[in-house]
Design brief:
Elements: H1 2-14, H2 19-53
Length: 54
């Protein structure tokens, strides 16, 4: 996966002192992105249902 390799590179560049900070930032970004992705998924499924019915 692209994300895991990026994580490895970022952790090796930052050193092991900033790994927890990077992890916290990623968790915060995920918590912000997850509802947006969920909304887009729900909207996409609704549009697919509507398109299938017509």
């Amino acid at each position: 996966m692209m994300l895991s390799s990026f994580l490895l590179v970022a952790s090796s560049l930052a050193g092991y002192t900033n790994v927890s900070a990077i992890a916290m930032f990623l968790i915060k970004a995920m918590s912000y992105l997850m509802p947006v992705a969920l909304v887009f998924f729900i909207l996409g499924s609704f549009f697919r249902l509507i398109r299938g019915q017509t």
